[in-house]
């Protein structure tokens, strides 16, 4: 019994990383399709494969999230009634998140920070398949990332509804989100982690993953225009 807990948590880490790899594989197939953008025949076939892989990956991850909530859901995550008060709260968080990014952009414009490698990669992909990469970045990526970094992560780890677990869930989920977007432990990593904490707090506050997906969607949409 003493050895059961570390084995269980180690297995959960492996499974969580597996879902992350599934997501990266789905996004990777779209990148491969973009590499053949000059060859329409190959690009169309690769794009078809990418769409199939993405649909399977998203279905698997969403199914697993639902299974987790059915098995153990002490925080009572689920669908909550959308009210004008909740929408206003979400807008306040969104405004704070935009202000945070405006400060980040200002630091980059003043050459205090460099442009993150993740942003460079996103901009490069946009030039290859603009429409499909825009759809993936604005619509699909938020769903994938919120299910993995908020939904599944918080169900596997810190799955107790008390102050310490809730705070740790928000912070560590945010830090992992930052590391997934910036591999160097620098200021840009902290900035991405800050965005992740906004999203984690939204999930914990509303107890409904639709709100942080919507916030993530709005954030990526504003970044694209």
Helix and strand element order: HHHHHHHH
- The coarse overall form would be globular
CA(first)-CA(last) distance: 54 Å
Structural class: mainly alpha
Number of strands: 0
Tell me about the largest β-sheet.
none
- Total domain modules: 1
Number of discrete helical segments: 8
How much of the polypeptide forms β-strand, as a percent range? under 5%
Low-confidence stretches: none
Please tell me the overall pLDDT.
Answer: 92
> Helical proportion?
over 70%
Radius of gyration: 18 Å
Pfam families: Rce1-like
Protein name: CAAX amino terminal protease family protein
Family: Belongs to the UPF0177 family.
Organism: Lentilactobacillus parafarraginis F0439
Task: Briefly summarize what is shown.
The protein is mostly helical. The chain has eight helices and no strands.
Descriptive overview:
The protein has helices spanning 4-35, 40-71, 84-109, 117-128, 130-156, 163-181, 187-206, 209-224. It starts with a helix and ends with a helix. The chain has one domain. The protein contains 8 helices and no strands. It is mainly α. Helix 1 (4-35) runs antiparallel to helix 5 and helix 2 (40-71) runs parallel beside helix 5 (130-156). The chain crosses the membrane at residues 12-30, 42-66, 87-109, 129-152, 164-181, 187-206. Residues 130-222 form the CAAX prenyl protease 2/Lysostaphin resistance protein A-like domain.
Question: What is the topology?
Answer:
Elements: H1 4-35, H2 40-71, H3 84-109, H4 117-128, H5 130-156, H6 163-181, H7 187-206, H8 209-224
Helix pairs in contact: 1-2, 1-5, 2-5, 3-7, 3-8, 4-5, 5-6, 5-8, 6-7, 7-8
């Amino acid at each position: 019994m003493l050895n059961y807990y570390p084995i269980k948590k180690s297995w959960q880490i492996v499974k969580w990383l597996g879902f992350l790899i599934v997501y990266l594989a789905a996004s990777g197939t779209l990148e491969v399709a973009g590499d053949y953008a000059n060859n329409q025949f190959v690009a169309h076939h690769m794009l078809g494969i990418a769409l199939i892989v993405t649909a399977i990956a998203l279905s698997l991850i969403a199914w697993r999230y639902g299974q987790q909530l059915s098995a153990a859901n002490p925080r009572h995550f689920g669908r909550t009634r959308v009210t004008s008060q909740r929408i206003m709260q979400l807008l306040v968080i969104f405004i704070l998140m935009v202000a945070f990014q405006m400060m980040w952009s200002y630091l980059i414009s003043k050459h205090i920070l460099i442009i993150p490698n993740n942003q460079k990669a996103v901009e490069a992909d946009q030039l290859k398949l603009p429409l499909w990469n825009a759809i993936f970045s604005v619509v699909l990526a938020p769903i994938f990332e919120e299910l993995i970094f908020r939904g599944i992560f918080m169900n596997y780890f810190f799955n107790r509804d008390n102050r310490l677990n809730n705070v740790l869930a928000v912070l560590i989920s945010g830090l992992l989100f930052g590391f997934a977007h910036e591999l160097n432990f620098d200021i840009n990593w902290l900035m991405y982690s800050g965005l992740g904490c906004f999203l984690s707090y939204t999930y914990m506050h509303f107890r409904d993953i639709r709100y942080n997906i919507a916030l993530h969607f709005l954030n990526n949409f504003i970044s694209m225009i």
